[in-house]
Records
---
Amino acid sequence: MNWMMHWQQYFEDSQYLEALVEQGFVVLDHALPESLYMALVLESREDEHYQAAKISTGGRLETVRSDSTRWIESDPTVNRQAGAEYLEALEALSLVLNRALYLGIRSVEAHYACYQVGQFYAQHRDNASGSDVRAISTVLYLNHGINQVDSNNWRAEWGGALRLVDASDAVQDILPIGNRLVVFQSDLPHEVLPATVVRRSIAGWLRRDTTV
Ligand SMILES: O=C(O)CCC(=O)C(=O)O
Ligand SMILES: [Fe+2]
């Protein structure tokens, strides 16, 4: 898969770049080829090795976030092919955004996340205070065919929106529809609202350092 060409198809269109720069975020629907998307959906449902999520200062504080996460390894000997392919896709996205916006991104990291019914992540930014190492945050939603709703739909009444305060201070509620990718500036405040169904995703970060 030529991931650079894949992302260029979006970001050649100046509206997408402008949204990311001006509003601070952009939403890409049907972001991945269906085959990789479905493979990620299945991989995300392999429940072993998810761990209680940590907050950016290192500890766990259930008043801040209550989801579980599983980091994606780029090690090819780890038998999780879809996740490794997705890391490659994020690396290519970094190159495309570096070329267009000179962001200086040098590495990527990503984890699966699972929010059980009622779990949430209170408002936060994706960098520890004083750090700007995470330049761009990404979230890919893996909520496929929940509760007999076919296609990749998510109903607003289930809750579970990503609530983002955008670059013009407007509050944006973005539903976690399957195969939707949200790309946003990591310094924007955002939160995950609780949902009445299980909510699955991959959160990924495009970083200015190479320590991961
Ligand atoms: O799942 C989402 O919509 C956002 C998750 C998030 O903010 C994070 O993991 O830092
Ligand atoms: Fe976040």
---
Amino acid sequence: MIGFIGAGNMAGALARGWGEPVLATDSGSGRAAALVEELGGETLGDNAELVRRADAVVLGHKPYQLEQVAAGVGDAATGKTVISILGGTSIAQLQAAFPQSTVIRAVPNTPVALRRGVTCIAEGGEQAVALFERVGSVFVLPESQMSVALATTSVMPAYVALVAEAAIDAGVRGGLPAARATEMFLATLAGSAELLIARGGDTLTVRREVTSPGGSTARGLAALERNGLRTAFDEALQAVIGG
Ligand SMILES: NC(=O)C1=CN([C@@H]2O[C@H](COP(=O)(O)OP(=O)(O)OC[C@H]3O[C@@H](n4cnc5c(N)ncnc54)[C@H](O)[C@@H]3O)[C@@H](O)[C@H]2O)C=CC1
Ligand SMILES: O=C(O)[C@@H]1CCC=N1
């Protein structure tokens, strides 16, 4: 069984995507018990026991808790595979915390819960590729690219939710009922993503196919550019990787 130290949002999404019984701990929140209730397995009161009993361990707590968690696990981690999903935490930091373990650095996103996630794995962690492929697409990257990976994939469900909110609110201001605007936008979002994929990621072609010279789309795109859409994404990336 996979053991989850921390059974919060991201660990829970992975566990639901994998869809198998788990071993899980939390810090008293009750979320480990809720996850076990849903998927089967066992809640444990002690991270060392969890590590001893798990086939592989996923670190699903917050990054700043690494040293405290590793100290609690101690020698139980000897010879174990420890998969970290901790944002901004290097392989060197993980290896220092778990010197007797095989450590793997992975950056997933929450759509893994639906098996439509993206997980980036730092080079050296290839043994975890098959596991994460069960819950979506996997990209193996040099470790130097992992922060940018997090800033473009892990955070993206939240960005897309914000973009959706903004577009739906604009539709409501234009006179659409909110529920109808939501349904229409989400269908458009899904279809547009499929179209971009079908066009092999050729964003310019997709834009040109929609944009009549001097027409409505050209006016809308110009307004988005004037209001700093590209700068907003660029600054968001800098904000994320800057910590
Ligand atoms: N939420 C997301 O979309 C993503 C999160 N991550 C990473 O996943 C990790 C968890 O983030 P979230 O799930 O969002 O946070 P969360 O707050 O939902 O979950 C963290 C969990 O860790 C547990 N915990 C704290 N101390 C513990 C301890 N000593 N022993 C066992 N469990 C303990 C807490 O009870 C909590 O349930 C973070 O390191 C974050 O950087 C990475 C990619 C995406
Ligand atoms: O917000 C966070 O810190 C985490 C890391 C990426 C997504 N959620």
